[in-house]
Amino acid sequence: MAEFFDNWAKQVRKGTIEYCILATLENDELYGYALVKAITSLPGLQVAEGTIYPLLSRLKAQGLLSSRLQESHEGPARKYYLLTKEGEKQLSHMHQYFSKMVDGVAHIDSVSAHVKRAKN
Residue 58 and residue 44: Cα distance in Å, rounded? Predict the structure, then answer.
């Protein structure tokens, strides 16, 4: 059963991480390492740093993100990521979907809790 849960949790995290990357960039651009730190610090995601950079590359290749290099006074140049217009559009759809999904899951949890109380 642990294998089932681990696989399920991995699938849930996969789409959620993409959503979190885009949502984190919704109001401001961030350089890669700052974005990685923001995402890896989210409770429950349990995502490694090495997972984020390939996702950033894929999201950029899909036209949802753009990037630019900026010289840094603290070391090498930093790559900043920001949402493209298409990324903003897709994130809007994702916000709506995610909100409905969370509401639906909360409803099921509420009904389930009510049924459990009624049985006791």
Answer: 23
Q: How many residues does the chain have?
A: 120
Would you tell me the crossing angle of helices 32-40 and 2-24 to the nearest 10 degrees?
140
55 C-beta neighbours (distance < 10 Å), count: 17
Strands 75-83 and 30-31: antiparallel
CA distance 91 to 84: 10
Low-confidence ranges of the chain (pLDDT < 70): none
Instruction: Please state the pTM of the whole predicted model.
Output: 0.84
Residue 100, burial from CB neighbour count under 10 angstroms (0-12, 13-18, 19+): exposed
Give the chain's domain count.
1
Alpha helices by DSSP H, the chain: 2-24, 32-40, 49-61, 85-119
CATH number where 78 lies: 1.10.10.10
Model pLDDT, residue 101 = 93
